[in-house]
Design goal:
Number of strands: 0
Order of helices and strands: HHHH
Radius of gyration: 18 Å
Structural class: mainly alpha
Shape: elongated
Bound molecules: zinc ion
Distance between the termini: 25 Å
Number of helices: 4
Strand content: under 5%
Helix content: 40-55%
Oligomer: single chain
């Protein structure tokens, strides 16, 4: 997943999570986080940035439109587990001429507006707060 894709994917996760919280399919961001294996602070962070208004649906008999919306949002959020498990390799160049095989880092919640996945592993600056302006040859270790 490229940085731009990570950003788009993360935005779709956020939108889906907020939709489900607004409909009170999940009453609390933490419930949603647990259901989909998201880091707990992430849905909290998203929800805090909204007006937190909800319009509860009748969960027994939602309208077809609501049912479809819930299904779609659930599918998007279920995609997270797979993204998390199959993160791409860091790929930074090592001194021995090989490339780093570690998975790219998962950003802390406040960094998710730049995408849930960093473009490097922890060792190679995946969690750095500054954005690298240009591609440099990473030599490390
Ligand atoms: Zn690395």
């Amino acid at each position: 997943m490229k940085p731009e894709e990570s950003k788009i994917f993360t935005a779709s996760l956020e939108k889906a999570a907020i939709a489900l919280l607004r409909l009170e399919v999940f009453r609390k961001p933490d419930d949603l986080a647990r259901r989909f294996g998201l880091p707990l602070p992430v849905p909290r962070h998203w929800w805090r940035n909204t007006d937190q208004k909800t319009t509860p649906i009748d969960t027994i008999s939602p309208t077809p439109k609501q049912a479809k919306m819930i299904r779609r949002a659930t599918q998007i959020l279920e995609g997270w587990e797979k993204i998390k498990r199959y993160r791409p390799d860091c790929g930074a160049s090592l001194n021995n001429g090989k490339r780093c095989k570690n998975s790219v880092a998962i950003r802390p919640p406040e960094g998710w507006d730049r995408g849930c996945l960093a473009d490097r592993c922890r060792i190679h600056g995946g969690l750095a707060r500054t954005i690298r302006r240009k591609k440099t040859t990473d030599v490390d270790e």
